[in-house]
Amino acid sequence: MAHEEDALEHERASWKPSAGLAVAVPDPVQNPGLPEHRQRATDQDPQAMKRAVRTIYTLFYFSVAASIWASIAYMIFPIESGALIDIRYNNLFVGLGIGFALLAIGIGAIHWSKAVMADKEHIEDRHATRGRDTTREGAVNVFVEADKDSGFGRREIIRNSLFAALVASVIPGITLFRGLAPQDQDPVALLRHTMWEGGMRLAHDPSGRPIRAADVTLGSAFHVIPEELAGLGHDEGYLEEKAKAIVLLMRLQPEQLNPDTNRMDWTYDGIVAYSKVCTHVGCPVALYEQQTHHLLCPCHQSQFDVANGAAVIFGPAARPLPQLPITVDAEGYLVAQSDFQEPVGPSFWERS
């Protein structure tokens, strides 16, 4: 038997196909097939399946309860009150409610897929990316028949009124954004002006200690608030005023600055001050790169060039950061010349 196998192997090695003869070479890789299916506990025990189902819908109902709790907590601890205890509890309990709601959905969905959904292995044959002509024609016919049955293409008044209704349906949501501002005051005025005024000293955030021009070294950056802001309590609008008035102070070589002609006297010996509120969606612009003189917003990566009026050089922000005009007083402290000359933060529809 061994002699016959050696002879057969020798014949295979020495055989060569004739010219023009097609040769079928067998696939050297054999299909191993699917492994033996291993049943889960829920496949074998109906009680285990019932427990798994109960666990899943309990998690989903728990998520509903957590979402409702988050909404209730938002009302129980209103941040509009300005009380520090309300702000802390609002952040804590609303955050816990939303977190547990999402976590329960995630755990329930994973448990559903692992324990309840069918887990039979199967093989799907590979097919061409392009469908057959008959399949494509059938799909087109489905849309044509649906259009005929619904009258969508024929009844223009219904179709156009539907489009109008869909467009108008988003208007109430946009209008509700107006409610983010206090209703007893004009939101335009609130967004257009800040605490800064002429002669007000620039102070460290959050200590409120005034800043001398001599203390601002080359390449440094200071987080700044108005000196008077440090004396306000949370029930006196501290957070609201700070959200608009926060400033970033930097010092460059005077010859590195390229101010506009109408802003030549807005700096002092290379020291410039810009609003920290990003003009995209209002995130704090707090990352300063002293070698390139670039400010970076960490939320959506907008970048501003401090040496050139905080002009936008990258990202979704649409306009430069507003500049705070500054000078020094008789004691050498940095002071504001006036408020910002334009509204701070993102653009809004009443902004001129």
Describe, in short, the structure shown.
The protein is of the alpha+beta class. It is built from nine helices and ten strands.
Structure report:
The protein is an alpha+beta fold. It has helices at 2-14, 41-44, 46-76, 84-116, 133-150, 156-168, 171-176, 187-192, 238-245; strands at residues 202-204, 221-226, 247-251, 271-275, 287-289, 294-296, 303-305, 311-314, 326-328, 334-336. 38% of the residues lie in helices and 11% in strands. It has a 4-stranded antiparallel sheet. A 4-stranded antiparallel sheet has the order 5-6-7-8, with no helix packed on it. α3 (46-76) packs antiparallel against α4.
List the helices and strands and how they pair.
Blueprint: H1 2-14, H2 41-44, H3 46-76, H4 84-116, H5 133-150, H6 156-168, H7 171-176, H8 187-192, E1 202-204, E2 221-226, H9 238-245, E3 247-251, E4 271-275, E5 287-289, E6 294-296, E7 303-305, E8 311-314, E9 326-328, E10 334-336
Antiparallel strand pairs: 1-2, 2-3, 3-4, 5-6, 6-7, 7-8, 9-10
Helix pairs in contact: 3-4
Domain Rieske: 269-335
InterPro entries: QcrA_N, Rieske_2Fe-2S, Rieske_2Fe-2S_sf, Rieske_Fe-S_prot
Organism: Microbacterium mcarthurae
Number of strands: 10
Low-pLDDT sequence parts: none
Distance between the termini: 99 Å
* Relevant CATH superfamily of the largest domain: Rieske [2Fe-2S] iron-sulphur domain
Helical run tally: 9
Q: CATH top level of the largest domain?
A: Mainly Beta
Mean pLDDT: 83
Assign the CATH architecture of the largest domain.
3-layer Sandwich
H/E element string? HHHHHHHHEEHEEEEEEEE
What's the shape? elongated
